[in-house]
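User: Structure tokens for both sequences below?

Assistant:
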Amino acid sequence: MPDIVSPAATLLIAALLGYLLGSVPVGVLMARAYGLGDLRKIGSGNIGATNVLRTGNRTAAALTLLLDAAKGAAAVLAARALAAEDAAQAAGVAAFLGHLFPLWLKFRGGKGVATFLGTLLALAPLAGAAACLVWLAVAAAFRFSSLAALAAAALAPALAPLLGAPQTGLACLLMAALIFVRHDANIRRLLRGEEPRIGRKG
């Protein structure tokens, strides 16, 4: 983790604002804007881009993916510009937690993959880009969004120090662990051969 140089109040404010930004339920809002219904009652019920894609609306899914990633990146970049790297990391991790446990949805949020990748891209661009490439490669090879997410999350804590960002290792490990926890049902379906592939309507 980075050296703690910011006052405790600054870190707390950065984390709070990051959490509130991460809590914005982009997928739910996109589904509503495009007349797709309540996303929480579609497919897996998840609020992320993969479930939006199950509605058949690729534009809404792409926007959800980009904006969910942007939540994490924006939190990091804003905190870095206004404070220091410790505040940036606090804001980014808090944005990730906000997506998982959003205030506006009674703390029942998404699985955090896009927000994780956006946060990592802003914290450590090379490690973030490498994690994105892992996601793309696994998704293209196997057509399972969950498997791609798990692979990217599993490798990110190792990629960060290897690619010059050891200060993000602990944050990566925390977020990766939560991604695995949130994918518990997906892991069980993968093992049973029942996991839906990318693009399947539900």
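Moving on to the next sequence.
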Amino acid sequence: MRIGIVSPYSFDVPGGVQNHIMDLAEALIDLGHEVSVLAPADDDAELPDYVVPAGRAVPLPYNGSVARITFGPLSTARVRRWLARGKFDVLHVHEPISPSLSFLAVLSARGPVVATFHTAMTRSRFLSAAQPFVQPVVEKITARIAVSELARKVHVEHLGGGAVEIPNGVAVAKFASAAPLPGWPGEGGALGFLGRFTEPRKGFPLLRTAYVTLARQRPGLRLLVAGPGDRDELFEEIPPELHDRVEFLGLVSEADKARMLRSVDVYVAPNTGGESFGMILTEAMAAGAAIAASDLDAFRRVLDGGRAGALFPNGDAVALTTLLGELLDDSPRRAELASCARTVVATFDWPSVANRVLEVYATAIEATDGRVFDDEWVDHGKGT
């Protein structure tokens, strides 16, 4: 099958949607399919062979974060050329109602379109205000996927219609087999955090507060942090006497992310909202780390109601401190959480998830009588 996938966000900055798209593309390729991914990126960017750059991205505030997207006439021309060349059996777009390549691709499509919705904004002024503009896009979508129950609920509330719930996948073997970083986790215990520590909804200040309290009581306790941001800014709010026990890796590769997750006793997800799934949780589960997470609905679902990871009240730094202390002192409980997590995460392994996505592709193709994307735009001299 010839499959075209569109990323709304640039691969220049790591993110859950981008990782989802790359992992899905590679899983589909491993299953014998031909895949091309169109994404915002400079023409000279270092990208996987299956990714086609669609031009430089610009930052845009979206869903409590900053998304790097590309949009406009030049982007439209690139989308049309890519569709015409690809002659895909199915087009798979992600977040198609955001102002992005996905939006443009659906408008230009001439065949079956599958859309995946990741967003978990229960109330969206943008979606409400943009309803008249997004309706033509919604009407061209043949089949819909939501990565979580919350994403499906948001989709139904704002756009109507249904969606098949298929979770984000994880390359279980890659994380399970990674080697820890040298010297980690160590005898004194290690906590881990991965994400934009400056982004309020990621909840890092909660972990920082908990760590400072615990580290003063536990001389060997260390904190491992990875993700974008300035090192000096990270250490500003951490007492100087603890600086040598905090390691900041900065942006990490996928391989180093797996090693980072293998290097901690407890992975901490203190996120305060805006999460529709929690891909980092499945990655930490695959890596064998015990997990402490805020009790967001999305996190609770991924962690099997708290059996595959310990939950604490959202936004409660005191409760997080108590929970982390208990987990650090209770090796058997950590092992039990990790064991349950290994069983749960097997259902998120990419080969299994990719086959479920292929079933949706087949349904979409059947619904459009198997038509492929034609080269209408080239025939009419457009987008060339």
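User: Anything stand out in the second?

Assistant: The chain has a mean pLDDT of 88.
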